[in-house]
TrEMBL record:
<keyword id="KW-0658">Purine biosynthesis</keyword>
<feature type="binding site">
    <location>
        <begin position="14"/>
        <end position="16"/>
    </location>
    <ligand>
        <name>N(1)-(5-phospho-beta-D-ribosyl)glycinamide</name>
    </ligand>
</feature>
<comment type="function">
    <text>Catalyzes the transfer of a formyl group from 10-formyltetrahydrofolate to 5-phospho-ribosyl-glycinamide (GAR), producing 5-phospho-ribosyl-N-formylglycinamide (FGAR) and tetrahydrofolate.</text>
</comment>
<dbReference type="InterPro" id="IPR004607">
    <property type="entry name" value="GART"/>
</dbReference>
<protein>
    <recommendedName>
        <fullName>Phosphoribosylglycinamide formyltransferase</fullName>
        <ecNumber>2.1.2.2</ecNumber>
    </recommendedName>
</protein>
<dbReference type="Pfam" id="PF00551">
    <property type="entry name" value="Formyl_trans_N"/>
</dbReference>
<dbReference type="InterPro" id="IPR036477">
    <property type="entry name" value="Formyl_transf_N_sf"/>
</dbReference>
<keyword id="KW-0808">Transferase</keyword>
<comment type="pathway">
    <text>Purine metabolism; IMP biosynthesis via de novo pathway; N(2)-formyl-N(1)-(5-phospho-D-ribosyl)glycinamide from N(1)-(5-phospho-D-ribosyl)glycinamide (10-formyl THF route): step 1/1.</text>
</comment>
<feature type="binding site">
    <location>
        <begin position="91"/>
        <end position="94"/>
    </location>
    <ligand>
        <name>(6R)-10-formyltetrahydrofolate</name>
    </ligand>
</feature>
<feature type="active site" description="Proton donor">
    <location>
        <position position="110"/>
    </location>
</feature>
<feature type="binding site">
    <location>
        <position position="108"/>
    </location>
    <ligand>
        <name>(6R)-10-formyltetrahydrofolate</name>
    </ligand>
</feature>
<feature type="domain" description="Formyl transferase N-terminal">
    <location>
        <begin position="6"/>
        <end position="183"/>
    </location>
</feature>
<feature type="binding site">
    <location>
        <position position="66"/>
    </location>
    <ligand>
        <name>(6R)-10-formyltetrahydrofolate</name>
    </ligand>
</feature>
<dbReference type="InterPro" id="IPR002376">
    <property type="entry name" value="Formyl_transf_N"/>
</dbReference>
<dbReference type="GO" id="GO:0005829">
    <property type="term" value="C:cytosol"/>
</dbReference>
<feature type="site" description="Raises pKa of active site His">
    <location>
        <position position="146"/>
    </location>
</feature>
Length: 199
């Protein structure tokens, strides 16, 4: 069994990170998180600590420019020589140099059916648009904002009267499962990121 080494990047509570940590508790799961990085003192880092996974934090406010922040973030990631970098609720747009160094082995979860509703407020935007469904996308990160090749998607119905938080919670449930499945499929060579990126 090929075991993928992962670095996971988070900004918040880390529910997607937790799903991957729980998945790797199964000895048969073909991926292992070697480190977790964040752009702030994110609450989700506690999940990594619980599982004994090393963490690092690279706050943008400590750097004179976005590029300098990106260079330090890339350096911290590359220390671990991961097979795959997973943005799991990481709320920063990565600078081009970081993307070019890591892509296509750099994936992201997004709470919408891309290309609909890219950006940081996808759930709110879907509700505002009055559409009947949104969803979850796991995609390769490229230099655009949520524009990279799609790995997997699943629709989520918007119920009448849904609030942003209610809809987001339902989306997160799907997101955790889809991300775990995407990592499994990449590890098992059912998804070839190089081919997807050049298709």
């Amino acid at each position: 069994m090929t075991v993928l080494s992962l670095v996971v990047l988070i900004s918040g509570g880390g529910s997607n990170l937790r799903a991957l940590l729980d998945a790797q508790s199964d000895a048969e799961f073909p991926a292992r998180i070697v480190a977790v990085g964040a752009d702030n003192d994110a609450a989700g880092l506690s999940h990594a600590e619980e599982f004994g996974v090393p963490t690092f934090t690279v706050p943008p406010t400590s750097f004179e420019s976005r590029a300098a922040w990106g260079d330090e973030l890339l350096e911290q990631i590359e220390v671990w020589n991961p097979d795959l970098v997973v943005c799991a609720g990481f709320m920063r747009i990565l600078p081009p140099r970081v993307v070019s160094a890591l892509s296509p082995f750099l994936i992201n979860t997004h709470p919408a059916l891309l290309p609909a509703f890219p950006g940081a407020h996808a759930v709110r935007d879907a509700l505002a648009a009055g559409v009947s469904q949104t969803g979850v996308t796991v995609h390769i990160v490229d230099e655009g904002v949520d524009t990279g090749p799609v790995i997997v998607q699943e629709a989520v119905t918007i119920e009448p009267g849904d609030t942003e938080s209610e809809l987001h919670e339902r989306i997160k449930t799907i997101e955790r499962r889809l991300l775990t499945q995407a990592v499994l499929d990449i590890a098992n060579s059912r998804v070839n990121l190089r081919e997807l990126a050049t298709a």
